[in-house]
Amino acid sequence: MGRVALVTGGSRGIGAAISKALKEKGYKVAATYAGNDEAAAKFTEETGIKTYKWNAADYEASKAGVAKVEEELGPIEVVVANAGITRDAPFHKMTPEQWKEVIDTNLTGVFNTVHPIWPGMRERKFGRVVVISSVNGQKGQFAQVNYAATKAGDIGIVRSLAQEGARFGITANAVCPGYIATEMVMAVPEKVRESIISGIPAGRLGEPEEIARCVAFLVSDDAEFINGSTISANGAQFFG
Ligand code: CAA
After folding, report:
1. What is the rounded average pLDDT for all residues in the chain?
2. Sequence-distant (≥ 6) Cβ neighbours of residue 61 within 8 angstroms
């Protein structure tokens, strides 16, 4: 097939699983990362997937990065806005910096990633946009006022993009992972994590590959009529 796919935060965690799944399906994948050079180099060595370093929170860097990927690989037809961070704190302790960092990366980062790619998708009359939201954007989460706000925002973004893109052959959908076995979830204090797992009817954390398979389907030609949707993959923790 050979379509070019950009995956932000694509060298670690859920993003790495998405990058690999798309490569296996024949896409030419570009994976971005913000800071961890060592992990990115290891990822490229293991998978052969090219990585690009820029901060999704920076519009000019995203624009320049997108231009570079398109120059090297061709027009981006699939974009997976996956890059995300947590700065968890109970609301009374949350600092304006913690609020802003998460908004800048997780929410504005989606704008910064998709905006430079969107005009080309409109021109070519084809595009697939997937935004990685979260169960915590659907249900809220203790100590995540910032993160939950961004992940709820992702759902509004894809519903709106879907309405703008549909007549140009562009779909935009959100995937809401539940708690997945990644570094982000492993950073939650063990006791809190155990109590979260006990509340997941499936009785376990999800695997990154389980999210990657949802994304691979949504970007495929088979998913052409699925537009503005939210797919939950959370072991029945929450239905949204
Ligand atoms: N629900 C209810 N109560 C909770 C809680 C939770 N999930 N997490 C912590 N608390 C309680 C603590 O037990 C503590 O209670 P006591 O005062 O009675 O002891 C109180 O809330 C807060 O304690 P602290 O003031 O000491 O909190 P802190 O400033 O040290 O912050 C924390 C601790 C950051 C909240 C930490 O507990 C934490 O990281 N909690 C997990 C938050 C979480 O689930 N994040 C999700 C990350 S994974 C992710 O985001 C991926 C995804 O999309 C699913």
Report:
1. 96
2. 54, 55
